[in-house]
Amino acid sequence: MPGTAGYRQPFLTLIVLAGYLLLAPSIFFLGPLALLLLVSRPTTAREWLWLFLALFGVVVAVRGRTTLLDQTIQGYGAFFAGAFVVLALLRIRSLVTRSLLSVGIALGGVVGWYLKLHLRFTDFRSAVSAQTWDDYRVLFPDLPATPPPGGTDFVGSGDVSEFARNLADGVASASSLTPGFLTLVLLVGGWLAWIWYSRITRHPISPPAKPFHEFRFNDQLIWALVAIAALALLAPTEALGTLAANLFVVVGGLYAARGMAVAQTGLRRMSPWFALVLYLLAFPVLPFALFAIGVADTWLDLRRRMAPPQGALP
Questions:
Q1: Pairwise CA distance, residues 66 & 68, whole Å
Q2: Which of 226, 256, 257 is nearest to 244 (CA)?
Q3: CA 196 to CA 186: how far, in whole Å?
Q4: Average pLDDT, rounded, for the chain
Q5: 18 Cβ partners below 8 Å, 6+ apart?
Q6: Residues 142/208, Cβ–Cβ less than 8 Å
Q7: CB–CB of 40/203 below 8 Å?
Q8: Which of 80, 154, 212, 246 could share a disulfide with 106, CB 3.0–4.6 Å?
């Protein structure tokens, strides 16, 4: 994942971290951070304090989590943290490469664990749907205790019945894409862990991340994106279609992040508040716009075009 301009904007980075810990599984951040601090052999009070807080947070995050969804998230995060630290020790300097390799290893670990326990992807989807439905029932108490099978079997008042059917269909559809979105969240967690680890430790095992506006990856990934899109459209089976859709979520998310880095480069000379207003105005189409910018940057190298002429004042 990319670096960040947080070295010059610590308050903004702190806000990003607080939002992540509030909205995402905290183990995705705390697990890599704790392991990184351990292998760096902490010596200062600050390093020991952060190590204690990270380990305490991991214990709190995993305590009492018994559902299949919770256990899958914990396992995914644990496999990723272990792979991420090992690859850092092996001197894989590119944070993008290290993170993607760690995701592949972690996914293999989770799949192996599922096979050992004779679990299937449908079990995972059911766990996601059940948890999501329970969350919705907190907001809408009139919903039935379980999602209507196929979105058609709930018997009740007309309005609630229609709403329940539509919501059940949406939850079922979204559950199939959960692995892809979880992977994006995991990548962000690893990126944040590396940012904070580089700030905390006195002797990091690898150089700190580059500023976010410099984020890019190998341009040849565009062919993987084309192949994934083709597979998603032409998949002969539902399983291959689901796989392609999740891969598209991950790779598409990387291109959207690249587009955001390009946008940040273009907005660096503007007021942060003005940039925030632009983002808010574009919010309805922001993911698609950033994705398009990221793809276009593959051929146009937009940041080079934004650079001031040689010898000009910045």
A1: 7
A2: 226
A3: 15
A4: 86
A5: none
A6: no
A7: yes
A8: 80
Question: What's the CA angle centered on 108, arms 104 and 112, to 5 degrees?
Answer: 175
The last residue of one of the domains, among 173, 192, 210, is 210
Distance between CA atoms of residues 215 and 196, nearest Å: 18
Q: 125 to each of 76, 176, 178, 179, 243, how far by Cα in Å?
A: 16, 6, 8, 10, 13
Residue carrying the six token digits 């209507």: 148
On the 0-12 / 13-18 / 19+ scale of CB atoms within 10 A, 308 is exposed
Domain closes at, from 161, 179, 210: 210
Cβ-based neighbour number of residue 152 at 10 Å: 11
Same domain flag for 146 and 52:
yes
Count of alpha carbons within 13 angstroms of residue 136, beta-carbon side: 19
Q: Is 281 exposed, middle or buried (0-12, 13-18, 19+ CB in 10 A)?
A: exposed
Residue 118 zone, left/alpha/beta (φ > 0; ψ -120 to 50; rest): left
Dihedral-angle region of residue 277 (phi above 0 means left; psi in -120 to 50 means alpha; beta otherwise): alpha
Per residue in 165-214, pLDDT (tens digit) is 888 888 988 999 999 999 999 999 999 999 999 999 988 888 888 888 88
The DSSP H or E segment spanning 20 is helix 10-23
Q: Give which of 186, 76, 61, 69 is closest to 129, Cα–Cα.
A: 69
Shared domain check, 174 and 102: yes
What is the C-alpha separation between 111 and 100, in angstroms, rounded?
16
Residue appearing with tokens 């379980």: 146
CA 102 to chain centre: 13
What number of other Cβ atoms are within 10 A of residue 21's Cβ? 17
Structural domain containing residue 300: 216-314
Q: What is the arithmetic mean of pLDDT over 132-150? A: 83
